[in-house]
Amino acid sequence: MTRILSTAGTEFRIALRNRWVAIALVLMAVFSLVLSLAGSAPTGGLGVDRLSVIVASLTSLSVYLIPLLALLMSFDAIAGEAERGTLPLLLAYPTAREEVLIGKLLAHLAILTLAVLLGHGLAASVAFWTDENALDGLPALARLSWSSILLGATFLGAGYALSSLSRRPSGAAGLAIGLWLGLVVLYDLALLSAIVADNGGWFTTEAFPIALIANPADAFRLFNLTASGATAAAAGVAGAADAIPLWQSLTSVLLWPLVALALAAAAFRKVTP
Q1: Helical residues (DSSP H) of 38-96, grouped into ranges
Q2: What's the total number of domains in the chain?
Q3: Domain limits for position 213
Q4: What are 28-86's pLDDT values in tens digits?
Q5: Is there a contact between 273 and 91 (Cβ–Cβ < 8 Å)?
Q6: Between the CA of residue 184 and those of 51, 164, 221, 227, what are the distances in Å?
């Protein structure tokens, strides 16, 4: 544990000098504030407090932004060390490779947590200021916060795996952007196309729910929309939230960080200095 915390402290200090820290904090703060200020319009029609509606908007934001920020922070975690020539020194220490990965994960996850808490704190402040019933939405916001951190952990682990496989930051960056586009953007478009082509057949009724919870980004979105009761504010693939049991999306949200870290550890074991 001491070695993990030492690695985490070192990585955190290094990350503080990285421009992605400032970018993560600014993006989360700005987008959360904008969504909060624009989130009052549908509250009357939906019959829910303003904070719950803001949570639905923040869920859509987090699906795109959290994975991107996590991948941008992690894509050079191993490849960068190899390019700078510090990887042999790092592996020469009496520290297991899994401990190195966990230390990096804790440092990067701390930064993501700061960004999430900053953005969600601003959103809550706006909601409390404008709606006296906003306290009703606090459980939904708390749920969104911790699940956002788990989503970030999933894509941090994926970034470490890609960084280990690539061994060059430029290649790892390309793989990271490709993964983000594939899972966050193109995956849902492919599902919608398949539903249209299937016309209410086997894929729509049987395969579609499984495909949704198999994607960490979709499972995160479905979990938060179902748990907050804000599915009326959802559209597209997210509109299927009511059809999928809450425990299934929650299980996916909880398992994916462990799976991603296991994949990262397996890829890192094959790296030779």
Answers
A1: 43-46, 50-74, 79-84, 87-92
A2: 1
A3: 2-269
A4: 888 888 887 775 554 544 456 778 888 888 988 899 999 999 998 899 889 988 888 88
A5: yes
A6: 25, 22, 11, 21
